[in-house]
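Researcher: Good morning. I'm working through a list of sequences from a screen, and I'd like to move beyond sequence-only analysis. For each chain I'm collecting a predicted structure so we can compare shapes side by side. This is the next one on the list. No need for commentary yet; just the structure.
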Amino acid sequence: MVANRFIAGSALITVILALSACGGQQSATRDQVRAVGSSTVYPFAKAVAESLAKSDTTLKAPIIESTGTGAGMKLFCAGIGPQHPDVEDASRRMKKSEFDECQKNNVKEIVEIQVGLDGVAFAEGSNGPGIALTPEDVYKALAKTPFGKPNTAMKWKDVNPALPDEPILVYGPPSTSGTRDALKELILTRGCESDPAMKALKESDKAKHDAICGELREDGAYVDAGENDNLIVQKIEANPKAIGVFGYSYLEENKDKLKGLTMSGVTPTYETISDFSYPGARPLYIYVKKAHIKAIPGLQAYVTEWAKLWSKGGVLAKAGMVVAPEAVLAASAKAASELPVLDGSQLK
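Model: Good morning. C-alpha cells for this chain:
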C-alpha cells in the first residue's frame, strides 16, 4: 500500500516537473485535458471527449469550453503550464499575429491539425420567405459603411429590389468568433470586392479596406448573439422574418426547424461544402501544445481520438461535421501521430 502511494506520488511529481520545465514555475497541475475555442467546433470536441472517456476509463473526460476562436486563441497563447489550455478549437486558421503572441509567451511548439470542414450557413425558420442571397446582398445589408458610405438600408429590398420588403434582422456571432472571421473573409469581403475600387484599395490601404469591407453595422440590423449558436437557432425559429448566421452543423442538427438560404444560388449542404462550391465553406482545426503532450494525462490519446472519429460515416460526420477530402484526412492523421510543429511563416 505504501509502495503504491509512493508510485502515485512520484507520477504526480513527474507531471509537475515536466510542466515546470516547459517554461514557467507551476504550483499545481491537471489530470485531464482542457480545450477552449470555437463554438462551431465545440459539439465535435465534446463528442471526441465523450468517446475517449468511454474507450479509456482510466482517463478523465477532457474539459471543453466554448469561448469563441479569437478568445480561445488568447487563452491558448498566454503561456505554457497547467493553468493554460492544452488545445485550441478553431473555425478558421490561426493568424500570424496570434502565432507571434504564442511565441512571445513561450508557446513555441504548436501542432496544427485540420479535423474537418464546415460552412458559414445563413438560415431562417421553416416558415420564412426563403430569401435567396449573394455575398454582395449580405455586404450591402450588414456592412457598417458599404463601399465607404454609411449604411441606410432598412429593408432587404433596399439592397436588392428582388429581395422581400422586410426589415433586415440578422442574428450572428460576436467579434471573438471564428465564424465571424469567416463571415468577413468568405462573404462580406467577397461582396465588398465586387466593386473594383474596393479590390484596389486592398493594395493601397489594407487597413481602410478591412474596415470598409469587414466592419458590421451597430444599429440593430445585425445582432451579436454571443457564442451560443443554439440561441440563434431559437431566435430565428421564433421570428420567421429573422435570419441567423452560424456553422452548418447547427443547421443540419435543426433541419426540422430551419431551412438554409442559398448563397449565389448554392444551398449549404454536405456535398456543396465538401466540394467548396458553397461560398461559405471553410476548414476546421485544432491546435495542440506539443510541450503539454507528455505532461498532461490523456492529451495524446485525445488527439488520436479525433483521428479515429473524423472519417465518413463516423461519429463526427453523424454529429454534422463535413468530412474533409481523403488527402486532407491522411495528412491530418499523420499530423495527429507525428505532431509536426507549425511553421509560422505559412500564416497570414
